């Protein structure tokens, strides 16, 4: 066991504070990672404040982890000391179900072991990336290509793969029209990736406040959903709508923007229930669905793709003593576009 510094929420809705946690000894197939940077995902806030239900405390959030390997177990074959690596939203799964065998560990039939706010196979709670070090089985570690700086790569481990996976699954590419709802931590990555895949990209945001950024980062069009004429002008336009917003929407209005056989994919998860009138689906055989991160193989594919296309997150680098302030700013949509903690300040 190794004692490391971390920032944890001691109870639901309590401010995060500096503490220490125990990391397990490096096992045969484990990798010890010196964490360099950890992104702040809105999911961290939902869980630390029990917005998604009862949680495990104390909680060390963080599932956008970038660092350097400092030790490997004797059975590790994929990584060596000094490698630049990342850890995303999960650190284990059953490895036996059809989904795990197909590289879809995020849909493990027995539920993945999440990077934090979960219980591992050893019966101990998992602690995330707001810490100095982490020990992870090599099968759930990915390599960060040299073309990506670790600070801008960290958010790719959640925001990047959460948008890349549905864009790939629904065949985003040249000739396709894609709308991204919301232009925040997830949305700005969705725009960058959809643009790099060759699609015609439109941002649908509440206002035009971030329009210049949206166009600079790859959007071809930018519309305000607060303007009712937006829905009239864009009716029947899109092959795919990627909804990154973690709040209820007027689903019939957004579904009306889909072409025949178009799909609206939700990657944001509201804390409150939403109502979806089925009448919005019947016209033009529209589809309403969801997507949840990506498997390990696809996460590596995403990182390689981002390195090839020069894609990293737009970040604000902060010290660990600014985490609580950053949480409030995320809730207020006052970040462009992902806070990243410099782990050296933990």
From TrEMBL:
Reaction equation(s) it catalyzes: a primary alcohol + NADP(+) = an aldehyde + NADPH + H(+)
Keyword field contains Cytoplasm: no
Gene3D superfamilies the UniProt entry points to: Medium-chain alcohol dehydrogenases, catalytic domain (3.90.180.10), NAD(P)-binding Rossmann-like Domain (3.40.50.720)
EC number: 1.1.1.2
Keywords on record: Metal-binding, Oxidoreductase, Zinc
Alphabetized InterPro entries for the sequence: ADH-like_C, ADH-like_N, ADH_Zn_CS, CAD-like, ER, GroES-like_sf, NAD(P)-bd_dom_sf
Keyword Aminoacyl-tRNA synthetase carried by entry: no
Residues in Enoyl reductase (ER) domain copies: 14-341
Cofactor: Zn(2+)
GO molecular function, one term: oxidoreductase activity
Classification via Pfam families: ADH_N, ADH_zinc_N
Protein name, UniProt field: alcohol dehydrogenase (NADP(+))
Membership in a protein family: Belongs to the zinc-containing alcohol dehydrogenase family.
Protein species of origin: Streptomyces carpinensis
């Amino acid at each position: 066991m190794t004692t490391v510094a971390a920032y944890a929420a001691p109870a639901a809705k309590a401010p995060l504070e500096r503490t220490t946690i125990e990391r397990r000894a490096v096992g045969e197939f484990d990798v010890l990672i010196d964490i360099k940077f950890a992104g702040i995902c809105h999911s961290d806030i939902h869980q630390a404040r029990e917005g998604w239900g009862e949680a495990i405390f104390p909680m060390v959030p963080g599932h956008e982890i970038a660092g350097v390997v400092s030790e490997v177990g004797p059975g590790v074959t994929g990584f060596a000391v000094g490698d630049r690596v990342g850890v995303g939203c999960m650190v284990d799964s059953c490895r036996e179900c059809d989904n795990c065998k197909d590289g879809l560990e995020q849909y493990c039939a027995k539920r993945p072991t999440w990077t934090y706010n979960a219980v591992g196979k050893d019966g101990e709670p998992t602690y995330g990336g707001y810490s100095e070090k982490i020990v992870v089985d090599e099968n759930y570690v990915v390599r960060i290509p040299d073309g990506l700086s670790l600070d801008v790569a960290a958010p790719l481990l959640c925001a990047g793969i959460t948008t890349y996976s549905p864009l790939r699954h629904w065949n985003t590419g040249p000739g396709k029209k894609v709308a991204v709802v919301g232009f925040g931590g997830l949305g700005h990555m969705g725009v960058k990736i959809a643009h790099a895949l060759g699609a015609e990209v439109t941002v649908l945001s509440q206002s035009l406040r971030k329009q210049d950024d949206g166009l600079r980062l790859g959007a071809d069009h930018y519309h305000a959903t607060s303007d009712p004429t937006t829905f009239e002008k864009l009716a029947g336009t899109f092959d795919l709508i990627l909804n990154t917003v973690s709040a209820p929407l007027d689903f019939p209005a957004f579904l009306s923007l889909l072409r025949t056989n178009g799909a609206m994919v939700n990657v944001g998860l509201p804390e409150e229930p939403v109502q979806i009138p089925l009448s919005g689906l019947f016209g033009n055989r529209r589809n309403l669905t969801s997507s949840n991160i990506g498997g390990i193989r696809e996460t590596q594919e995403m990182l390689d793709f981002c390195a090839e296309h020069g894609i990293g997150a737009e970040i604000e680098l902060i010290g660990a003593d600014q985490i609580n302030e950053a949480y409030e700013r995320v809730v207020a949509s006052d970040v462009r576009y992902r806070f990243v903690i410099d782990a050296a300040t933990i």
